[in-house]
Specification:
Strand content: 15-25%
Distance between the termini: 20 Å
Structural class: alpha+beta
Strand order of the largest sheet: 1-2-3-8-7-4-6-5
Shape: globular
Radius of gyration: 15 Å
Oligomer: single chain
Largest sheet: 8 strands, mixed
Length: 158
């Protein structure tokens, strides 16, 4: 299985580190975007500041899916939720709630939506890696709470 990863990793050895050494955004998508599973992928933001985190997510997804027009999310997860933000010159409206806790829904059009699992920023790498891989598996119907409860010793890129 090959998932779509978007992290940028530091080069090994001495010398300057490349731009984006923080690996933003930490995102995995279902490879074929078939829509046959519960999730289209997973996102592991670095903080609970949606205004700081969302522009990078929208930019990354927009490059692969097209213009994101609206986002629906669970406001209880985020510190403060604005009604809209400007990303790359486009207005993106923010609404609530998402389909369920631990998710974010991104709308490209009236009938074109993508649902991502949101892995809390404080999640251990092994748990985050397993949850993200599970959410990005074609045809997976495992609920968010179950994906996020896995404890293992895997590792995730950055």
């Amino acid at each position: 299985m090959t998932n779509s990863f978007f992290p940028v990793r530091p080069l090994p050895g001495p010398g300057p580190r490349p731009f984006a050494t923080d690996c933003l955004p930490r995102l995995v998508l279902e490879p074929a975007m078939t829509g046959t599973g519960l999730f289209d992928g997973a996102w592991w933001p670095r903080s609970s500041d949606i205004a700081a985190e969302l522009p990078d997510l929208i930019t990354a997804l927009g490059a692969h899916l097209g213009r994101i027009r609206r986002v629906a999310l669970d406001t209880g997860f985020w510190d403060s939720v604005p009604r809209s933000i400007i990303v790359n010159g486009d207005l993106v409206r923010i609404g609530w709630p998402a389909a369920s806790a631990g998710t974010i829904s991104l709308s490209l059009g009236i009938l074109d939506h993508r649902l991502l699992l949101v892995v809390p920023p404080e999640t251990a790498r092994s748990t985050a890696a397993a949850a993200m891989a599970g959410a990005a598996t074609t045809g997976n119907h495992t609920p968010a709470a179950e994906l996020l409860s896995w404890e293992g010793n895997g590792s995730f890129g950055c």
